[in-house]
Design brief:
Layout: H1 3-6, H2 11-47, H3 56-80, E1 103-108, E2 122-135, E3 138-150, E4 157-159, H4 174-185, H5 191-199, H6 207-232, E5 237-249, E6 254-265, E7 274-279, H7 284-291, E8 302-304, H8 312-316, E9 320-322, H9 325-339, H10 342-361, H11 366-392, H12 400-410, H13 412-415, H14 429-434, H15 436-441, H16 451-469, H17 474-484
Protein name: IS66 family transposase
Pfam families: DDE_Tnp_IS66, DDE_Tnp_IS66_C, LZ_Tnp_IS66, zf-IS66
Length: about 500
């Protein structure tokens, strides 16, 4: 607000403005204090002798994650500070890039070399900055040459400006940063392994350097992940699932169980989005916090999930439950596989009919899908319900067969809701397939003792897996996004979301 505008405010408005500004200052200072404390804890974690209780790969993973966390905290502190933050640690002397790598020159000159006084400037030298680039399988060096132009009359010096980068004054291009992220979060290669892989190509990239890059990229890409989540929550049908991951606990010298929650848009939606959320536990409060606290801003739609009790609080607040027919079928399959139960075999035949109908309707238009379900699936659903109710009267309470039947009968409304809504799926397999990459890489990314490393992994994986879900090559996507993010207006960050992204020509 300009001074002229302040003069027009009433005393009451001035008091309100002052109170709001004081509140913002207190919040900003509280955040700085929190990050400063976390920074001190991470440094102590990095250098304390207690970290030595980890051995081999676990210790390497812990060191990588702590270095990433340190850089992320420093980046956030620098964004909050009114002036650039002083680096907390001395920057090691940069080694020259290998002379044998192919080099490409990029020359940057001012738009005009005529001085404001009217004189023609003369070129008096140049600055050369080398950046390490990466395209799949190949390292190259970009030589950026910026000529210096000076006016002899007024001693004015002009030089083309340096473009903004995710890593300011660093050697990596967006292509190399994209490679490090994709290798870690899509190909399950921890940084200490990447260090060895790059060394075989003649490039020395210490894991501490790689970790700093990952931490900085995590902070820079968070606005994009926030926009991805907001876009997903605008949809009325979502899937949810969760899977355990090991989380390092440096203080105890061991790991404990944490969880990665996966949320995605429905399989019949045009916008295909998956967003991961890392949490220390499986408590239902994490789903409640992710989808919005009770209130006007909370998400209210149809949630496809299993019968895990952690989702019950959401259902009590107005979220519509959509059951998973695959979970109901699985109860009978286990009964048949273990005991060759005839009842289970008959139940599997009914479930098989429903899935056969769904295979025919899956690729149809919503109108045709609903028509097929009403005409073909509804009679089978009604017959299956009568069959389950009849056989429940014949089996003893507490038996395995009774438990399998009760699972379906108690959830029947949620399990069959898809029959009356073309946009609802028959099961939750869509999101279970999205969580499969986590299971594949579970042994390769144990997290540090704070939530920060897990949250960062969830954020980057959200971008990578959403890109793959939309048929976009993750490395090409991240390379372009990391190139454009530093100068992309906050109001237009949604243009970079995976389902909207268009590959540059």
């Amino acid at each position: 607000m300009h001074e002229a505008q302040l003069d027009t405010l009433t005393p009451a408005q001035l008091r309100e403005l002052t109170a709001r500004l004081l509140s913002e200052v207190r919040y900003k200072q509280a955040t700085i204090d929190k990050l400063t404390h976390e920074n001190a804890v991470l440094k102590r974690m990095k250098f304390a002798a207690s970290s030595e209780v980890f051995q081999g790969d676990q210790r390497s993973l812990l060191e990588d994650a702590v270095d990433e966390d340190l850089e992320a905290v420093q980046s956030e502190l620098q964004q909050l500070a009114s002036k650039p933050a002083v680096p907390a640690r001395q920057t090691p002397k940069r080694q020259a890039l290998p002379a044998e790598l192919p080099r490409r020159e990029f020359r940057h000159e001012p738009d005009s070399t005529r001085c404001a006084c009217g004189c023609q400037m003369k070129r008096i030298g140049e600055d050369v900055a080398e950046k390490l680039d990466y395209a799949p399988g190949v390292f190259t060096v970009e030589r950026h040459i910026r000529g210096k132009w000076a006016c002899a009359q007024c001693e004015r010096l002009v030089q083309a400006p340096v473009e903004a980068h995710v890593i300011d004054k660093g050697i990596p291009t967006a292509g190399l940063l994209a490679q490090v992220l994709v290798a870690k979060y899509a190909d399950h290669q921890p940084l200490y392994r990447q260090e060895g892989i790059y060394a075989r190509s003649g490039v020395t990239l210490p894991r501490s350097t790689l970790a700093a890059w990952v931490g900085a990229c995590g902070v820079q890409s968070q606005p994009l992940v926030d926009a991805l989540k907001a876009e997903m929550l605008s949809h009325q049908v979502l899937h949810a699932d969760e899977t355990p991951v090991a989380m390092l606990d440096p203080g105890a010298g061991k790991t404990h169980r944490a969880y990665l929650w996966s949320y995605c848009t429905g399989q019949f939606e045009d916008s295909r989005i998956v967003v991961y959320d890392f949490a220390e536990s499986r408590a239902g409060k994490h789903a409640m916090e992710f989808l919005g606290h009770p209130g006007e801003s909370a998400w209210r739609g149809a949630l496809v999930c299993d019968d895990y009790s952690g989702y019950k609080a959401l259902l009590a607040k107005g979220v519509t439950e959509v059951g998973c027919m695959a979970h109901a079928r699985r109860k009978f399959y286990e009964l048949w596989a273990n005991h060759r139960s005839e009842i289970a075999e008959q139940a599997l035949s009914h479930f098989g009919q429903l899935y056969e109908i769904e295979r025919e309707a899956r690729d149809a238009s919503p109108e045709q899908r609903l028509q097929t379900r009403q005409a073909q699936a509804k009679p089978v659903v009604d017959a299956l319900h009568r069959w389950l109710a009849l056989h429940r009267q014949k089996v003893p309470d507490g038996s395995a067969t009774a438990k399998a039947i009760d699972y379906s009968l108690k959830r029947w409304v949620a399990l069959t809701r898809y029959v009356d809504d073309a946009m609802l799926p028959i099961d939750n397999n869509w999101v279970e397939n999205r969580i499969r990459p986590v299971a594949l890489g579970r042994s390769n990314w144990l997290f540090a003792g704070s939530l920060r490393a897990g949250k960062r992994a969830a954020a980057v994986m959200s971008l990578i897996q959403s890109a793959k879900l939309n048929g976009v090559e993750p490395w090409a996507y991240l390379k372009d996004v990391l190139t454009r993010l530093p100068t992309q207006p906050a109001s237009r960050v949604a243009e970079l979301l995976p389902h909207r992204w268009i590959q540059p020509t």
